[in-house]
Sequence to fold (226 residues):
Amino acid sequence: GEDVEQSLFLSVREGDSSVINCTYTDSSSTYLYWYKQEPGAGLQLLTYIFSNMDMKQDQRLTVLLNKKDKHLSLRIADTQTGDSAIYFCAETVPGGYQKVTFGIGTKLQVIP
Amino acid sequence: DTEVTQTPKHLVMGMTNKKSLKCEQHMGHRAMYWYKQKAKKPPELMFVYSYEKLSINESVPSRFSPECPNSSLLNLHLHALQPEDSALYLCASSRPQGSGETQYFGPGTRLLVL
Fold:
């Protein structure tokens, strides 16, 4: 079945790197996503990775995928106060329709 | 343009009211979605439209009635809601080319049912 797990909370100092972790259970996952949600707002797609990739970098964001352990991480370099938000890991699996399974979300708090 | 717009931003309604939420996108996406998100929870899928036809209904109560009048618009008609239906309602869209197409979300409508 589909299950995506994340830790609930992460606190970092401004300027440090943040690493948000996620594990998923379905080995047939095709796409894995990171979404950001600021208070009272919708979900902003940050980045995504195909399941046949190991790493993807986009400016301050680095996504690492370990397929063997079914582990996905999001590293934010030089974390800023504007990065404070909830970060959702999500996956899709083949199934003939577009169902996205979200993790519970990790709240990132950036301390000035 | 990767924007999905939703109106209204906020809505307060009584349990006997009828209201509608609206969603619009002009990215040429032919799959559109409604999600419900409670506080401190991830979004939960409600409905999926693919090429303006309802393809998924995740056992949503009939007091929620979706409508897709054309490829750019998605509505959610609300009637006789309960206080527990208070939540953030998110619309999303994607290209419906099999599973895994990236979904782009709107800012949501925050609904309060009194």
Q: What stands out?
A: Chain A has no helices and eleven strands. The mean pLDDT of chain A is 89. Chain A touches chain B at residues 30-31, 33, 35, 40-45, 48, 88, 92-100, 102-105 (CB under 8 Å). The two ends of chain A are 41 Å apart (CA to CA).
